[in-house]
Amino acid sequence: EVQLVESGGGLVQPGRSLRLSCAASGFTFDDYAMHWVRQAPGKGLEWVSGISWNSGSIGYADSVKGRFTISRDNAKNSLYLQMNSLRAEDTALYYCAKDKGSMVSDAFDIWGQGTMVTVSS
Amino acid sequence: SSELTQDPAVSVALGQTVRITCQGDSLRSYYASWYQQKPGQAPVLVIYGKNNRPSGIPDRFSGSSSGNTASLTITGAQAEDEADYYCNSRDSSGNHRVVFGGGTKLTVL
């Protein structure tokens, strides 16, 4: 079964850091680009970051650039998001999503169930 | 960075046809993908590329594009199609970025 399982969310104070993980199974992880997409409570989807199959191409939304870092470990079939200098507006459900291709594109065909990040003092 | 604009809400009578649109400069260069999201669930890809449906997506869902506008058409809307629909595309500003539209709440009457 193709599956993405996120972990690492929780309650964190503003200015602190958090690292999200996404464990992939059921497909050849290192053939595909991967993404993080977030959704604030009651709001729409916001693309956060994407990474190509070999980590050679990486992109970030303006809202997180310089604070968040995406990475992957193909040997461990895992995707990560290091989130630093967290702000209240980063509060959201964070989804891990698989791209249909090896490079960053717009077609995300597999999604996890998300991990909630709450930034509050 | 690019922006994609969607109507916040659209309604359709059961069994009728509805078109959901997405506008943005990036759509002059790239196709849009479309996602369906029901309450409490993760999004599901329903259309990608020129007009491609992933396995398991009913053929009543179709996509099209003209100029700076992409459209998702549901022909013969069913009650189970009531959901939020989001478009996205690659960002025409480059730098390996993607942008989502604000979403459209579809109500099936």
Automatic annotation (TrEMBL), chain B:
The keyword Transmembrane helix does not apply. InterPro entries: Ig-like_dom, Ig-like_dom_sf, Ig-like_fold, Ig_sub, Ig_V-set, IgV_Light_Chain. Gene3D superfamilies: Immunoglobulins. This is IG c412_light_IGLV3-19_IGLJ2. The keyword Transport does not apply. Keywords: Immunoglobulin domain. GO terms for cellular component: extracellular region. It comes from Homo sapiens. It holds the Pfam family V-set. Residues 1-99 form the Ig-like domain.
